[in-house]
């Protein structure tokens, strides 16, 4: 180059070099993530900067925690994370699908094909696949009382890819019940109403669903009851502590008596609020069989706690805001912002409130509520990494149930859809297209097979055998998936392996887009200083 | 151009300083190796004849102990796989409070055996499924080995408690269990509530006082406060007690107060009213019958003066938790601020006295009457590290008591259970047909680790012991274990060495879980260690 246009430190890659960098990055990322896919995927251990351990099989977690630097890989990772944000699952599939598309394209490009032609083919294939998906999906009617069995199957399919089998089966019941609990007719499902709480205690299989709420703090007064039955619950957001005036105020006194009166006057305001609560308690709990619990979002200072404790009221202070919402949904009543004119209608009800102490931590359980619209999944596990793993899995499980309820449809899993879609593309779609775009469709169709291929690979089966037997079955018109234990074709419907419709749709939608973009890059310029120090 | 030279695969994608290990050789076997190294450290501490370790942690604190939980805690294990084992040990310590060593050593042992299996060609996933089957079977078998009739025990019967506690305590302080166990048992039984399941470990306190020796250790019904009384009254008996969480002083407003004084006369008058006020309060306290005043915060000079005048003993307990315990001990209800107490709120103690033990002044609060719920084990020893170790032994003993309150089932100790499990599990493995059987057989073999280490640590011939144990067990003497003192195999029911079922249950379960977790990992991605403040020396385990 006779004249440099760019900063001498800038790096330029052009034409095939740029393309190959992209392809290599995509393949590299695929290599990392592909062992994650499916129930037989292996676990990765991530060690953070501070030496903290995370064990995960979840593609999303992995992408977030691995500090990826390569620009292409970052783009792919973002697409995958976006996949997770919209549909809650399918991150790994997205990444390996992108990688495979690039890999297939590489072959054709090396033979002299222009990327643009491939991209055109991708586009046609994408639209055809989406149409095919519409016909392929299985409708599920989700009326007032959805079919729990189907939901459990969907939950199980998702969870088994994140956790080991026994635990996944147990959790799938939990997530289904949790979602159905917070589901209200005519309203979108708000998964935030499922509180996820964890305790470092016992084993992972002790994880359970609590119809009610678990708060991660306890009462702060030693004389309050640790366990109470038939409780009225007052959810409030009232400060029960003395607050200093905003302006700089001071007292002037000249005798000790004067000071004493000032001390009492100062307390009076707060005490009055407390007395109002106590009054309400005496009104509703006159029969001595019921108890009264105050859960306050703001603080309660020691003198007020003392007053409440003497009146036999259990008081919790500084509850989380989101829990206030959930409490009302779980126990009924309403959250009050002022203690004036309290009526029994504001109160919620719970059959059992108790405190559980675990080492230094205190937990308050609000259980046996009537007709709850909020619930808690209490995760237990012996150590933090187990808990984190379960937490991620539960989040995905909840999302998958929610998706099913909203889609009112599921897709046959275990690779059945991918094989069927490929069949459709090759047999039907390819013939309708003229010219070189056919190649793009072919590449797309072959890339779809990466899902069953990887499933087979991770289960230690012979990839080619599996693919051929699956293809044959599909040729004969049987829709089958892969049994990862034996490598034989199975009917996913019989085995109860269902994927989310929206997840699959999102994958088919986003993957060709990002792959096309990467293929169409013909120049990469890294500006300015070199971030990677030459070594 | 650097772009061109980018390595293919994951290395090129990540930030510099990343480490990436994958595959069988690089990840799985290395992980196993690291865990093995860790267990090499802990296993010599297993059992009564276990060796002590001397550890100096990053704060230059010295530990001399054979308590595995403490050892691994202070080691600052860096390797991620070894850390999983450490976490399993910690979980055991938190859950039961004992058996951490068994957890770590056993996990290390089954991992070591897994390595052999991997080398012969088994896939880790097959080993995991075999181990999972094995542990489930083990749990079943464990139920069978449980000593009959032990599920019902009287947790208030000292002899029964001592027999269950002995194995635990002797593994920490061998030879001293005959003195320590009765002490711990006494202390625990005294505070055991009506429903034993509600037993609270916190109610058994430990006071460590340098000086004296093991024979000076004792149990005090009540509490020992490690400070002096404030006033001149050092001893009262049969006293009523009033507790204030706030300070014993003149009351103050939250808002800033200013005394408005215009002339000298007012100043004098103010001081007088102040005095009168305090006197009035203290007098009211004295009139209520209280003889001891306990303050949770500062005690004012003036208040002290009047307390002296009304012959009130003044104590200061600044820890909130200590104050709560004090309330529990004496049955007092803590009052927020200095005010005339209600008779219901007064507590009672048989005696409150300041004594000098080993050069330190301590306040002993005794309460023999019913209603007391806190006891203190007074430990005496010549050095701090001995006291610390004694404390850990007592802690373990108390935790064992708690565990037996929940589940009193016992198993034969001294490796009898392990051999029995190994034997039965081996039989089970022969019945399995798949590749699992190899893993199950190895799992069974792993149990031999316990008698092996016990024998090794006691200087006996391990192989001989194990073979004779197997012979005895095969002959139907399922309760035969090692008598390490005589170096022979004996029926443990004659030796009265019993282990708690729950301890073993959790230890084995946690160990297997941790080991399976380690085996499941096939890739490790380590980010660059975060830059923190530099230590003087690099924290490394290799450097001895």
Automatic annotation (TrEMBL), chain A:
One of its GO terms (cellular component) is cytoplasm. InterPro entries: Chap_CCT_zeta (IPR012722), Chaperone_TCP-1 (IPR017998), Chaperonin_TCP-1_CS (IPR002194), Cpn60/GroEL/TCP-1 (IPR002423), GroEL-like_apical_dom_sf (IPR027409), GROEL-like_equatorial_sf (IPR027413), TCP-1-like_intermed_sf (IPR027410), TCP-1_chaperonin (IPR053374). Gene3D superfamilies: GroEL, GroEL-like equatorial domain, TCP-1-like chaperonin intermediate domain. GO terms for molecular function: ATP binding; ATP hydrolysis activity; ATP-dependent protein folding chaperone; unfolded protein binding. SUPFAM superfamilies: GroEL apical domain-like, GroEL equatorial domain-like, GroEL-intermediate domain like. It is found in: Cytoplasm. It holds the Pfam family Cpn60_TCP1. Keywords: ATP-binding, Chaperone, Cytoplasm, Nucleotide-binding. Its main location: cytoplasm. It comes from the Eukaryota. Molecular chaperone; assists the folding of proteins upon ATP hydrolysis. Known to play a role, in vitro, in the folding of actin and tubulin. Belongs to the TCP-1 chaperonin family. This is Chaperonin.
TrEMBL record, chain B:
It is found in: Cytoplasm. It comes from the Eukaryota. One of its GO terms (cellular component) is cytoplasm. Keywords: ATP-binding, Chaperone, Cytoplasm, Nucleotide-binding. InterPro entries: Chap_CCT_theta, Chaperone_TCP-1, Chaperonin_TCP-1_CS, Cpn60/GroEL/TCP-1, GroEL-like_apical_dom_sf, GROEL-like_equatorial_sf, TCP-1-like_intermed_sf. The keyword Nucleotide-binding applies. One of its GO terms (molecular function) is unfolded protein binding. Belongs to the TCP-1 chaperonin family. This is CCT-theta. The gene is CCT1.
């Amino acid at each position: 180059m006779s004249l440099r246009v760019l900063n001498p430190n800038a790096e330029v890659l052009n034409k095939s070099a740029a393309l190959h960098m992209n392809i290599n990055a995509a393949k590299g990322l695929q290599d990392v993530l592909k062992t994650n896919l499916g129930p037989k995927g292996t676990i990765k251990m991530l060690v953070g900067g501070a030496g903290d351990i995370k064990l995960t099989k979840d593609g999303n977690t992995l992408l977030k925690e691995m500090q990826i630097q390569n620009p292409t890989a970052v783009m792919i990772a973002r697409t995958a994370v976006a996949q997770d944000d919209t549909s809650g699952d399918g991150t790994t599939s997205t990444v390996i699908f992108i990688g495979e598309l690039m890999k297939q394209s590489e072959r054709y490009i090396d033979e002299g094909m222009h990327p643009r032609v491939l991209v055109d083919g991708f586009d046609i294939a994408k639209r055809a696949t989406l149409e095919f998906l519409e016909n392929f999906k299985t409708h599920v009617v989700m009326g007032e009382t959805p079919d729990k069995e189907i939901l459990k199957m969907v939950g199980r399919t998702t969870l088994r890819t994140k956790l080991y089998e026994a635990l996944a089966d147990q959790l799938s019941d939990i997530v289904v019940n949790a979602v159905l609990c917070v589901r209200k007719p005519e309203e979108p499902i708000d998964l935030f109403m499922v509180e996820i709480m964890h305790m470092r205690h016992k084993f992972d299989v002790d994880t359970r669903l609590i119809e009610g709420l678990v708060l991660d703090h306890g009462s702060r007064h030693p004389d309050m009851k640790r366990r109470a039955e038939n409780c009225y619950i007052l959810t409030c957001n009232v400060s029960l502590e003395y607050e200093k005036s905003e302006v700089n105020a001071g007292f002037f006194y000249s005798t000790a008596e004067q000071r004493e009166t000032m001390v009492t006057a100062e307390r009076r305001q707060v005490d009055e609020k407390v007395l109002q609560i106590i009054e309400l308690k005496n009104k509703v709990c006159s029969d001595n069989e019921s108890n009264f619990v105050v859960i306050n979002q703001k603080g309660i200072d020691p003198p007020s706690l003392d007053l409440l404790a003497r009146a036999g009221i259990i008081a919790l202070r500084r509850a989380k805001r989101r829990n206030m919402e959930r409490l009302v949904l779980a126990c009924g009543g309403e959250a009050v912002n002022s203690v004036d004119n309290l009526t029994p209608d504001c109160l919620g009800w719970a059959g059992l409130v108790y405190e559980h102490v675990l080492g230094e931590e205190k937990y308050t359980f609000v259980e046996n509520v009537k007709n709850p619209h909020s619930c808690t999944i209490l995760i237990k596990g012996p150590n933090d990494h187990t808990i984190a793993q379960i937490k991620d899995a539960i989040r995905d499980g909840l999302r998958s149930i929610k998706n099913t309820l909203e889609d009112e449809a599921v897709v046959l899993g275990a690779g059945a859809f991918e094989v069927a879609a490929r069949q459709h593309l090759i047999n039907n779609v390819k013939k309708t297209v003229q010219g070189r775009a056919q190649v793009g469709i072919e590449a797309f169709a072959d890339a779809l097979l990466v899902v069953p291929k990887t499933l087979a690979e991770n289960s230690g089966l012979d990839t080619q055998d599996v693919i051929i037997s699956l293809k044959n079955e599909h040729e004969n018109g049987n829709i089958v998936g892969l049994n990862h234990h034996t490598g034989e074709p199975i009917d996913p419907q019989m085995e109860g392996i269902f994927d989310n419709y929206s997840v699959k749709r999102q994958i088919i939608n986003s993957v060709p887009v990002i792959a096309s973009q990467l293929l169409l890059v013909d120049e990469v310029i890294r500006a300015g200083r070199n971030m990677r120090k030459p070594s | 151009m650097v772009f061109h030279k980018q390595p293919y695969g994951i290395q090129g994608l990540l930030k510099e300083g990343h480490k990436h290990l994958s595959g069988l050789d690089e990840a799985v076997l290395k992980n196993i190796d690291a865990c093995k190294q860790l267990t090499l450290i802990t296993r010599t501490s297993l059992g009564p004849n276990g060796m002590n370790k001397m550890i100096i942690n990053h704060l230059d604190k010295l530990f001399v102990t054979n308590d595995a939980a403490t050892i691994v805690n202070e080691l600052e294990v860096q390797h991620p796989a070894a850390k999983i084992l450490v976490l399993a040990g910690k979980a055991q310590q938190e859950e039961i409070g004992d058996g951490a060593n068994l957890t770590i050593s056993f996990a290390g042992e089954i991992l070591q055996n897994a390595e052999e299996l991997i080398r012969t060609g088994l896939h880790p996933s097959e080993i995991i499924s075999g181990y999972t089957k094995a542990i489930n079977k083990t749990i079943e078998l464990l139920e069978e080995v449980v000593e009959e009739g032990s599920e019902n025990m009287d947790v208030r019967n000292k002899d029964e408690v001592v027999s269950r506690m002995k194995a635990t305590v002797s593994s920490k302080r061998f030879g001293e269990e005959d003195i320590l166990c009765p002490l711990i048992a006494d202390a625990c039984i005294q505070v055991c509530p009506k429903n034993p399941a509600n037993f609270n470990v916190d109610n058994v306190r430990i006071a460590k006082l340098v000086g004296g020796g093991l024979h000076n250790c004792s149990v005090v019904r009540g509490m020992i406060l490690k400070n002096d009384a404030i006033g001149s009254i050092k001893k009262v008996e049969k006293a009523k007690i009033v507790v204030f969480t706030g300070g014993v002083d003149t009351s103050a407003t939250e808002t800033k107060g200013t005394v408005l004084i215009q002339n000298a006369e007012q100043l004098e008058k103010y001081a007088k009213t102040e005095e009168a006020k305090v006197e009035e309060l203290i007098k009211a306290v004295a009139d209520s019958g209280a003889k001891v005043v306990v303050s949770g915060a500062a005690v004012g000079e003036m208040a002290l003066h009047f307390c002296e005048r009304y012959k009130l003993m003044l104590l200061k307990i600044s820890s909130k938790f200590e104050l709560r315990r004090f309330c529990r001990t004496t049955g007092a209800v803590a009052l927020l601020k200095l005010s005339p107490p209600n008779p219901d709120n007064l507590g009672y103690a048989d005696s409150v006295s300041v004594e000098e033990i080993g050069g330190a002044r301590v306040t002993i609060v005794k309460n023999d009457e019913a209603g007391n719920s806190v006891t203190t084990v007074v430990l005496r020893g010549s050095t701090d590290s001995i006291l610390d170790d004694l404390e850990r032994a007592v802690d373990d003993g108390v935790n064992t008591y708690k565990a037996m309150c929940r589940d009193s089932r016992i198993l034969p100790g001294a490796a009898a259970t392990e051999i029995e499990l190994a034997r039965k599990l081996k039989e089970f493995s022969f019945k399995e047909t798949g590749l699992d059987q190899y893993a199950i057989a190895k799992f069974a073999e792993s149990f031999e680790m316990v008698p092996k280490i016990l024998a090794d640590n006691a200087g006996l011939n391990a192989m001989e012991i194990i073979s004779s144990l197997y012979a005895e067990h095969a002959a139907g003497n399922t309760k035969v274990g090692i008598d390490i003192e005589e170096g022979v195999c004996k029926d443990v029911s004659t030796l009265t060495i019993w282990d708690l079922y729950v301890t073993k249950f959790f230890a084995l379960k946690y160990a297997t879980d941790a080991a399976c977790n380690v085996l499941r990992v096939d890739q490790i991605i380590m980010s660059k260690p975060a830059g923190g403040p530099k230590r003087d020396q690099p924290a490394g385990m290799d450097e001895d």
